[in-house]
Amino acid sequence: MKIIVTKDKITGAAKAFEIFSREIKAGAKVLGLATGSSPIELYQDMVDSDLNFSNLTSINLDEYVGLSPQNKQSYWYFMNEHLFKAKPFKHSYLPDGQTNNIAAEVAHYNQIIKENPIDIQLLGIGRNGHIAFNEPGTSFDSTTHEVKLTQSTIEANARFFDNIDEVPKSAICMGIASIMSAKKIVLLAYGEKKRWAIKNMIEGPITEEMPASILQKHPDVTIICDEAAAQDLDKKYLA
Asked: What is the pTM of this model?
């Protein structure tokens, strides 16, 4: 793992943009993308840049079950608002949250990933170490699957909805093995609330109870975090 500690998420986004820009200019064709608060500044840097995504493919990590692309809390809406409408891709894939056949959609999404190997995958990390919606206990061998959201995740997402009853209870999510198949991974983490997850992901044992710990086994991972998230790391990781 390469660990980059920055002052704040603005400088973190700039570092991430440097990596994505370099990889795209070097020939990367498929970008694995993420939603949430962590990548917003990176996407803005992409929008403000002269990078051209029209010959690239994007594959997102997940989508809520039951939400349409027009729903302001859907991940399709998020991606369109923050990136796609300003920087359209040749193809952009997200799971179909409105499908009537989740098993078929899962198989279809696995096929998309198989046919479009991800060159560089963007990740965030949850407070409990989840990556995408892969919560503690998720098999490291998992591919795309439906995830029943934990109560803590539902409560964390409730701030985006009028009330907690509107929060989707499941999502279609790229699995951990799917994420690990990416050639390069960049993980963003900002804020004191991520300090436990960052420390245990990097320094702790590799265990399915800390999903992100599997990244220790990936050959090309860059962790970009701010000082607040990195504050508990052993100093040897910060040299």
From this structure: 0.95
